[in-house]
Amino acid sequence: MANPDEPSLIPLAGLDDGRRAFLELLDGMRRTLHLYTPLMRPDLYNDADVLAAIRNRVVNQPKIRFHLLLPPAREWRSDCPGLVRLTERLTTALILRTPSREEAPDRPELGQMFAIADDRALLRFSDPRRLIGGYEPQPSERMKELRELFRTLWERAQPDPDLRRLGI
Questions:
Q1: Most CB contacts within 10 A, which of 15, 19, 45, 97?
Q2: What span, in angstroms and rounded, lies between the C-alpha atoms of 14 and 132?
Q3: 100 near 157, Cβ under 8 Å?
Q4: CATH 3.40.1180.10: does it fit domain 10-164?
C-alpha cells in the first residue's frame, strides 16, 4: 500500500512520456516555473504543443513567470526557432539566462534537466538526451534541494549575449 506522506514518482522513459509530463506540469502551474537544462532537445522545447501551452499560460495569467536557465543560445537557437520567437514576444514572462560555467558548483545534477512549478511539482530528466527521469506532482525534499540549486545558479547566471542581440 502506498504511503500518502511520500510523494508519488511517475517514471518517464522517452519523448512521449517526457512531453506528456511537461505539458501536465505547465498546465498545473499558477505562478512560476524554474527550469534548468544542460541541453536543448528540439523535439521537446520546440514542440508546437509545448510552445502553445507556454503561450496560453502567459495569455491567461499575465503575471506568470518562466525562469529558464539554458545552454548558450548559439547551441540551440537554430534548432528551436519557435522558442526564440516566443521569447521575443513574451520578454516579461520568459526570462532566459545562461549559467556561468566558471561559477557553477560541481554537482552531478548539472548534467540533468529539472523543472519546478510553483515550488509544488518537479519534472526531472536524469538523462536529458533520452528524456529518462521522473515526474513528482507533489512537493518533495528532492524538489526543495533542486530549487536551492536553481537559486544559486540563477544568481550567478547572465543574460545570453546571443539573445541580447535579438532584444531578448
A1: 45
A2: 6
A3: yes
A4: no
